[in-house]
Design brief:
With 170 residues, this protein is mainly alpha-helical. It folds into 2 domains: 83 residues, Orthogonal Bundle (Arc Repressor Mutant, subunit A), CATH 1.10.10; 71 residues, no CATH class. The protein is 46% helix and 5% strand. The chain has 8 helices and 2 strands. Helix 2 packs across helix 3 and helix 4 packs across helix 6. About 14% of the residues have low confidence.
């Protein structure tokens, strides 16, 4: 399982906001992009979605910016990843016709239940109709998400001072 850069950047942005020396002060996207050496335009889309999901508060205007809208202890990593990761199709047999032809926005649940074969688009693997490997992958994916659900943003910023040194004072 590999998460997209989108999820990686979302997590890093939330970490950045959580370890700011003055957490109530406003940050801006340019500062986050510079700190991590990532694209500001790509980060803008991510910050927008995090705002829509209620993780980030945006303040408009000349002195505007962004900050966490929730306490770090209230941001569950598993829930966040399920909301922002575009799909969990580990192998092609996880993909349905709908997800291939018209990708839907990320959902809040992991699609580990398989859709009946007749609803699937033709796939390249000839053993898909009888393959039990997909159930192994489904179990692994469920375990992956379960582990993430055991952690919050607060858990991954326990070394706040060290993170702040690297992000703000280097």
């Amino acid at each position: 399982m590999r998460l997209t850069n989108y999820s990686d950047y979302a997590l890093r942005s939330l970490m950045y906001l959580a370890v700011r020396p003055e957490p109530e002060s406003l940050a801006n996207i340019s500062d986050i992009a510079t700190s991590y050496n990532i694209s500001k335009s790509h980060l803008t889309k991510i910050i927008h979605q995090l705002g829509q999901l209620g993780y980030i508060e945006s303040v408009r205007g000349k002195n505007g910016g962004i900050r966490l809208a929730k306490a770090a202890k209230d941001i569950n990593l598993g829930i966040l990843i399920k909301q922002i990761e575009p799909d969990f199709e580990l192998v092609e047999c996880f993909a349905t016709r709908a997800s291939r032809n018209n990708p839907k926005p990320p959902s809040s649940s992991v699609p580990v239940a398989f859709i009946e074969e007749e609803e699937k688009a033709p796939v390249g693997c000839v053993i898909t109709p009888v393959c039990t490997l997909k159930s192994v992958f489904a179990e692994a994916l469920t375990a992956f998400i379960h582990v993430l659900e055991q952690y919050t943003l607060a858990d991954i910023i326990g070394n706040k001072d060290e993170l702040a040194t690297l992000l703000f004072y280097s």
